[in-house]
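Teaching assistant here, posting this on the class forum so everyone can see the example we discussed in section. The complex has two components, and the goal was to see what a joint structure prediction looks like when all of them are supplied at once.
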Amino acid sequence: MAIKFILHKICAQSGARLGTLETAHGSFETPIFMPVGTQATVKTLTPAQVEAIGAKIILSNTYHLYLRPGHRLVEKSGGLHKFMQWPGSILTDSGGYQVFSLNDLRKISEEGVSFRSHIDGSKHFISPEKAIEIQQALGADIIMCFDECAPYPADRSYVLPSLERTLRWAKRCQDAHSNVERQALFGIIQGGMYHDLRARSAEKMIELDFPGYSVGGLSVGEPKPLMYEILESTVPLMPAYKPRYLMGVGSPDALVEGVLRGIDMFDCVLPTRVARNGLALTSFGKVVVRNNPYAEDFAPLEEGCDCYTCQKFSRAYLRHLIKAEEVLGLVLISIHNLRFLMRLMEKMRQAIREDRSLSFAKEVLAKLL
Amino acid sequence: MAIKFILHKICAQSGARLGTLETAHGSFETPIFMPVGTQATVKTLTPAQVEAIGAKIILSNTYHLYLRPGHRLVEKSGGLHKFMQWPGSILTDSGGYQVFSLNDLRKISEEGVSFRSHIDGSKHFISPEKAIEIQQALGADIIMCFDECAPYPADRSYVLPSLERTLRWAKRCQDAHSNVERQALFGIIQGGMYHDLRARSAEKMIELDFPGYSVGGLSVGEPKPLMYEILESTVPLMPAYKPRYLMGVGSPDALVEGVLRGIDMFDCVLPTRVARNGLALTSFGKVVVRNNPYAEDFAPLEEGCDCYTCQKFSRAYLRHLIKAEEVLGLVLISIHNLRFLMRLMEKMRQAIREDRSLSFAKEVLAKLL
């Protein structure tokens, strides 16, 4: 088996779980946050900096790497780990989300999706088989089924046939996947905001017996309480002894809420994307670094934070870098934001270990607001 | 004294000198190259990365820091070293070069230069006294006299009164400089491309007895052979037992030629600026990283280079980053380019030690072309 997941315990206060996930590139405790390295780089950071943040597994995007530099080139270089010099684990998404987001540039059929590249307009076609072929060439430790992430809002009449096709595609992905000893293929549960459709998707996906499952199609514009409701009805249907991954979710509050509901893995571009807008995540909410009050604030972004940025630099310096449009500002805030989420997850794991996940979550959420 | 310079030897093959320069922030061998951190950051790099490159002293720009974030803010934060968390030595220029480069935006008088900010058009005035006040607030280990760097080409009738004013300004800088125990003030020799005017400037500047001298007004558009001619006539006039600094020069060939002619210190934005255009410096010339031949080139930028970039990443990966407009591409090429110049200077110092600077220089220059 490509991965080994051990469930250590479920918190006495909530559905939060403590586990260990092992891949060919290391072993780490869950729940965990995965920084996103869309184009084979966690934006602005060296792999050494990403390691120093405490990241154990990162996500990279199949769609982007397929278009540029091309999966065959990455394969020729020795695979994605070697290409980008990331020593830890990697998960690649299937490209489905990006391809469906192209809207006017794509056309769906039972066979797959034909689309035009957002880079040069060139024509491409990705089927479930092709998505697996690309992901096998990239060589991530965990790969994902090719799926459709339904938009929000979407009628039942759209969501039902979409999830049925995603189920058929999942089977085709499974059949096409030959590298099962080195890469674990996860199934994706869809079903929009409809509890019964989620249940149907979960049931059928679980029948296919994947080594792990994700909840897709959330954090697509719906109110957060609705997302949590869907998690509450869907997650309990998922196998307890397999990892559960909530795709595209990474705001501090949603991470905490997701963990309470039994999610083990998360990914999101948020920490690095907001950093590039000069926004820092802290345990007392967001800090807009360029704001005037920080001009002569010689304290770190967050007292007590152990990241390189907070250990070394003042808010005044960071504000100067952002105002002067210096790249180092983005680098330093990205480091802090990622480390902040890593520490948040470390603290959540400790709270689960000590059966106080709910009390800890309440504390965290109260300070965030 | 703020600095201590020890001249160890002059090469038997050329005018190249081996020395040690000591400041309150460390001691290092000369000749040395100083990376430029214009806005209190060596562009795209953390101080830790700049240290890892082997840099011992960096240059920062008075004009830029005066305008943003302001020298008083930097002073309040504990000075420039603390503000930017650079543990090594710092040299600040005087702002003269930048102010004079503003052309239509500035007006010169005997008193100083009034100008408009390139950022917001606000009105400012920098006199020699003000330039020293700013540099004292910033707190660099070595500071520079406020001077005019004459353009190229420039008539004798322009250069002569300009250098005379620069001499009067140097005296005023010296009189205004109160922090002599912590900051060494260097004089700047001007005189355009006129040997006799250079000699006049050198003679008068030396009478003022500064702890170090720079050659300014070169690498301003003149052909390189002309720059070398000026160095050949000017450098021998400079005190042997004081450091000699050639301002704004940093192309690999000009560094080698400058060292042969007795220069101890250099600075230039070139290695980081060309990196941001995807251009790598190597001992066999420039590498345009985005070029097609590197698409599937899995070798490092330069075989045998000990920098983080060359130890870890392939040309194919760097090309991918540059084509995908990823910041990490600029970071990694900046690291390589700076390390390349650091190693070039290390090798030059070793060659001087072994009395083979000229033979070594010939080898280097032959490979560069």
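For the discussion questions: The two ends of chain B are 43 Å apart (CA to CA). Chain B touches chain A through 39 residues (CB under 8 Å). Think about how each of these relates to the inputs above.
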